[in-house]
Specification:
By secondary structure, the chain is an alpha+beta fold. The protein has two domains: about 180 residues, no CATH class; about 90 residues, no CATH class. The chain contains twelve helices and eight strands. β6 and β7 form a beta hairpin. It is globular and about 60 Å long. Bound molecules: zinc ion. Zinc ion binds next to β1, α5 and α6. The site of zinc ion has 7 residues, from β1, α5 and α6.
Length: about 290
């Protein structure tokens, strides 16, 4: 479990406030007996997990549904004042709004009801996504969360794949869920992983929403990768190039690298659209 701890600590399960974030005024009127942040978070957590298992339960492996049921009961989210949060998690950047702790519990900073709803929904999505820890090899452990895959050798992170895309997909589902519940102000209260979220949206348009759902909730990431490879005319490097470029967009601070990644992603997207078009025409002839 030590590796797991380390993974959880260094993992990307964070909702960041973007610098360009739109700060919205609190729209909830404070009045006597007003619902506390903890209660708002607990309700949001229940609603999100309930709806995700209801909607995507059919693509989840049985053991995952069991795990979700257990974690749902045992790990209710904890809301702390910003000072308390910084004291307890001094390594967290002040822009981090919430995260999973070493035991998989959700902690978040106190905020407006809209921010609390957004952060809770995002973190609850991580809980419902596919999770797997393969530590059968004593020197190498592989941890999968959604489509993210992190490999640790002797406790050191050696590979970290699909990190930004996994956050983008998480945030996309979180925003969809907030909108579905009519919590539109909450949906736009936090602008987390904007680049990756947009790429996740474009990816879904290319491969279909079912393929993304099966990868994220059902652990069938390989199927998603293979579909992207197919849309790139069988180029085996296509998925890795795509995913690494999204990491650059979201995590790099080098403007040249970001520019290059954006250009490559634009070209790759145009090629995939052209491939799909040619396929469609082929179908037309077959009719
Ligand atoms: Zn996250």
């Amino acid at each position: 479990m030590a590796i797991f701890r380390r993974l959880r600590e260094t993992g990307g399960r964070e909702t960041r406030e973007d610098e360009k974030k739109r700060t919205l005024p609190e729209t909830t009127t404070r009045r006597d007996g007003e619902t506390s942040s903890a209660k708002i978070s607990a309700e949001t957590y229940e609603k999100t997990i309930g709806h995700m298992t209801e909607t995507f339960g059919d693509v989840m492996p049985e053991e995952q549904r069991v795990r979700i049921d257990i974690e749902r009961e045992e790990k209710k989210p904890v809301v702390l004042s910003s000072e308390e949060y910084s004291q307890r998690f001094p390594k967290k950047d002040p822009s981090v709004l919430g995260h999973y702790d070493t035991e998989g519990r959700i902690y978040m900073r106190e905020g407006s009801p809209e921010v609390i709803r957004h952060v809770t929904t995002h973190e609850a999505l991580h809980l419902t996504s596919y999770n797997e820890l393969d530590d059968t090899d004593p020197h190498r452990a592989v941890y999968r969360s959604g489509i993210r895959e992190a490999a640790y050798e002797n406790g050191k992170l050696t590979e970290d794949s699909n990190r930004a895309l996994n956050e983008g997909i998480t945030e996309r589902y979180a925003m969809q869920e907030l909108q579905r519940r009519g919590e539109v102000t909450s949906c736009w209260a936090v602008n987390a992983y904007p680049e990756a979220q947009r790429k996740a949206y474009e990816l879904e348009g290319l491969v279909g929403s079912r393929t993304v759902q099966e990868a994220y909730f059902g652990g069938r990431a390989e199927q998603l990768k293979q579909e992207v490879i197919r849309l790139n005319g069988g180029d085996e490097t296509a998925w890795d190039r795509f995913s690494r470029n999204v990491d650059v967009l979201e995590y790099s601070s080098d403007p040249e690298k970001i520019k290059q990644a954006r250009l490559e992603l634009t070209v790759q997207r145009a090629e995939m659209i052209a491939f799909k078009e040619s396929e469609r025409h082929k179908d037309d002839h077959n009719l």
